[in-house]
Amino acid sequence: MPTTELVLPQVRESTYIVVWEYQVKAEWEAEFVAAYGADGDWARLFQRSPEFLGVELLGSVGSAGRFFTLDQWSSSAAMDVFLAANATAYDVLDRRFGGYTVWERRIGGFPCDT
Fold it and tell me: Which residues contact 55 (CB under 8 A, 6 or more apart)?
């Protein structure tokens, strides 16, 4: 019986998501949302890498000024390579936007199946 070989599109089996939590100063909330959202300065920096898949900015419904970002990368290694190569640009943004928050913390990085 003859067979046909199909070329299937590559499917990403997993991704790596880094979750950050922020307590944002009320007077800086609009600027924070602009800088940390999907079209913000952080996303534009990360988009220099083809391995960056996007960011989601989530606001807490139970705590005013509490936000979370979910940065999605193709892998932990890809993110690490990007951060090492772009440390200066990262530090510039971190200092520029540091005054927007009361505190921030990295909750963790998580491999995720898609």
Answer: 36, 37, 38, 40, 42, 43, 46, 69, 70, 71, 72
Residue 74 and residue 94: Cα distance in Å, rounded? 23
pLDDT reading at 2 higher than 70: no
Give me the residue label for tokens 């988009």.
Answer: 47
Instruction: Classify burial at 10, counting beta carbons within 10 Å of its beta carbon; exposed 0-12, middle 13-18, buried 19 or more.
Output: exposed
pLDDT on residue 8: 47
Q: What is the pLDDT of residues 85-112, one digit of tens each?
A: 999 999 999 999 999 999 999 999 999 9
Q: Is the pLDDT of residue 6 over 70?
A: no
**Domain architecture of the chain: domains with CATH:** 17-113 (3.30.70.100)
CA distances from 90 to 2, 41, 50 (A): 55, 10, 17
